[in-house]
From TrEMBL:
It catalyses: ATP + H2O = ADP + phosphate + H(+). The lineage of its organism: Eukaryota, Fungi, Dikarya, Ascomycota, Pezizomycotina. Belongs to the DEAD box helicase family. DDX56/DBP9 subfamily. It is found in: Nucleus. Signal peptide: none annotated. Keywords: ATP-binding, Helicase, Hydrolase, Nucleotide-binding, Nucleus, Ribosome biogenesis, RNA-binding. InterPro entries: DEAD/DEAH_box_helicase_dom (IPR011545), DEAD_box_RNA_helicase (IPR050079), Helicase_ATP-bd (IPR014001), Helicase_C-like (IPR001650), P-loop_NTPase (IPR027417), RNA_helicase_DEAD_Q_motif (IPR014014). This is RNA helicase. Residues 1-10, 17-27, 350-363 have a biased composition (Basic and acidic residues). It comes from Bionectria ochroleuca. GO terms for biological process: gene expression; ribosome biogenesis. Its EC number is 3.6.4.13.
């Protein structure tokens, strides 16, 4: 029977006994030890410096350990990976106490290669104190069939794969599901829209009856229901919404601006370091990402590109290096996710937007076909664990509210704070500056209305960000100089050059990934593309453009400070002051920016 649980509910029957500790212990005291996990797993958890389980871990781990089917909806960055990996490892370790026969007990299906890589690494880390007892294999790298077959020939305990790869290997008898005990569908709501319908149906036919099924998702959608049907499952629903105090988690801001003003603001924000810390900038498409990179290059601002056209090794390496703090700015285009996303929220609102969006999609069959040429297993706004991202900038607003959720979910992960800043083009300004226009902006206002509704439902306010336009204007002529240099030809050349360079790097990466990881640090992805006319003078900001306080004033704490410390509610509540900073001046850094105009 299906049961629904939320933060306060308790499950009945079987899970009851498992849940007791969670409900009896005060949240602050609850530790990983209370989950009754194997000591070797507890050691690995301690090594990762996880102090206590997150809400989703507290709720899902006991249910999974009790063998129940679980469908878990919890927000982005809330620790869903560990919530299924830990019980998975615990049950394999338990099994190993009584049997030495090798068999594949768990299949973890993920929609993208990046995610497969990430989950594999998470498993490696959690299993670091019991590595001999746990064999995990990921199938998504571009390995030959022979290599995949040999990897699978030892019947690894856990196989991580995209559905397509998994089916390919099951179909060729390289992978056997006969002894499967647990099936995990991570980012479950994406599986079908990524075009894995047939693979899923095929796999479902061969998954033995009674296999425990765990589904993880940040959003619930009709696709998740479809998956339940495909696998004949009626799991216990854990619908977890963790309340956030004002100023905690993500602070949402929008700037309403003209199309060219986006470039102006981006220049001012990054050149004057109004935003400190790491940042992901989302743009509408691949060309746009090169345009912005070349534009930044004009001012000496370094950035990396992430898109579906780049080879997978480069993509994974960019994320790894970003997480090692080698780069501060990633310009990402998430065109696939954009095309495939539909808004369950909008549908709930009954405003018919879903149909409208579908119609829009069908109007652009060419776009879909174009997409097919790129990596069909790419996705950057979904599930990727970018660490310590202070700000997500929607340079181009996504086309759905659910895309917005996933994009901004790259910040404020693991209980930290972050900021989402979105540029929104009002209808009256759409197509008013043709060189910088982008089709998706036509609907910006509509999408913003949906985002506001969506955030309101979870008690979040989307605030306006009012730049002092007059003062920002002082930078316009420099912006125009830079924009003029970034011609269509320069963008096209940059795209081709980057692809060529990354393919070469990717080969290098492939060779070194396993043998010599230290060598990889010399491979960088934020080099200058130099396809646009160079204007060295733009790299400096003349003093007369700076605010009265000078550069020191711009980079001091009250400007551009995005707090990345973890939430500490008890402290906020007791003293209040620190909490005020989060929602007040500190979290609202750009407002303090005042540029002095040229006086002569
Ligand atoms: N108990 C914990 N304490 C501290 N950090 C944690 C804990 N659990 C997970 N994390 C960290 O939180 C980050 C986000 O975790 P994870 O990627 O599992 O989130 P998610 O819910 O799967 O996100 P998404 O919906 O975007 O896929 C990771 O860097 C992870 O190491």
């Amino acid at each position: 029977m299906k049961r629904k649980l939320d933060k306060n509910d308790r499950p009945s029957s079987a899970a009851d006994s498992e849940q007791k500790p969670a409900t009896e212990k005060a949240e602050a005291e609850f530790s990983f030890t209370d989950l009754g996990l194997d000591p070797r797993l507890l050691q690995a958890i301690a090594k990762q410096k996880f102090e206590k389980p997150t809400l989703v871990q507290r709720k899902a781990i006991p249910l999974a350990l009790s063998g129940q089917d679980v469908l878990c909806k919890a927000k982005t960055g809330s620790g869903k990976t560990a919530a299924y990996v830990l019980p998975l490892l615990a049950s394999i370790l338990k099994k190993k106490q009584t049997t030495t026969t090798a068999s594949t007990s768990a299949l973890v299906l993920v929609p993208t290669r990046e995610l497969a890589d990430q989950v594999f690494k998470a498993i490696e880390q959690f299993a670091s104190f019991c590595a001999k007892d746990i064999q995990a294999v990921k199938l998504t790298d571009k390995l030959t069939d022979a290599v995949q077959r040999s990897l699978l020939s030892n019947s690894p305990d856990i196989v991580i794969s995209t559905p397509a790869r998994a089916w390919h290997n099951v179909n060729s008898s390289a992978l056997s599901l006969e002894h499967l005990v647990c099936l995990v569908l991570d980012e479950a709501d994406l599986m079908l829209s990524y075009g894995y319908d047939e693979d899923m149906k095929n796999l479902a036919k061969l998954v033995p009856k009674g296999v425990q099924t765990i589904m993880m998702s940040a959003t619930l959608s009709a696709e998740v229901d479809a998956l339940k049907e495909i696998f004949y499952r009626d799991p216990t629903l854990l619908d977890l919404e963790e309340p956030e105090a004002d100023g905690e988690g993500i602070s949402h801001f929008v700037v309403k601006c003209g199309e060219d003003e986006k470039f102006l603001l981006a220049y001012v924000i990054f050149k004057l370091q109004l935003i400190k810390g790491k940042c992901i900038i989302f743009v509408a498409d691949i060309d746009r990402s090169y345009r912005l990179k070349l534009f930044f290059e004009q001012f000496g601002i370094r950035s990396c590109i992430l898109n579906s056209e780049l080879p997978v090794n480069s993509r994974i390496h960019v994320v790894e290096e970003f997480n090692r703090n080698v780069y501060d700015i990633i310009i990402a285009s998430d065109e696939k996710s954009e095309m495939l996303n539909v808004d369950p929220e909008d549908d709930e609102a009954g405003d018919g937007k879903k149909g409208e969006e579908k119609e829009e999609e069908s109007k652009h069959p060419k776009k879909r076909r174009k997409l097919a040429k790129r990596d069909s297993e790419y996705g950057v706004s979904r599930g990727i664990d970018f660490k310590n991202v202070g700000t997500v900038i929607n340079f181009d607003l996504p086309t759905t509210a659910s895309s917005y959720t996933h994009r901004i979910g790259r910040t404020a992960r693991a209980g930290k704070n972050g900021m989402a800043l979105s540029f929104v083009v009002p209808q009256a300004l759409y197509r008013k500056h043709m060189p910088t226009t982008v089709d998706t902006a036509e609907k910006d206002e509509k999408v913003l209305a949906r985002i506001i509704r969506q955030q309101k439902k979870i008690g979040k306010e989307v605030k306006d960000y009012n730049f002092n336009k007059e003062q920002v204007e002082a930078f316009r002529y420099r912006m125009n100089d830079a924009l003029r240099a970034v011609t269509k030809v320069a963008v096209r050349e940059a795209r081709t050059r980057e692809l060529r360079q990354e393919l070469l790097k990717s080969e290098k990466l492939k060779r070194y990934f396993e043998e010599n990881p230290a060598e990889l640090h010399h491979v960088r992805h934020d080099g200058e593309l130099r396809t646009a006319r160079s204007q060295p003078h733009l790299k400096h900001v003349p003093d007369y453009l700076l605010p009265k306080e000078g550069k020191k004033g711009l980079t001091s704490e009250e400007i551009g400070f995005v707090p990345l410390r973890k939430k500490d509610r008890s402290r906020h509540h007791k003293k209040g002051k620190r909490g005020v900073k989060v929602g007040g001046r500190r979290a609202d850094p750009l407002k303090t920016f005042k540029a002095r105009r040229k006086t002569k």
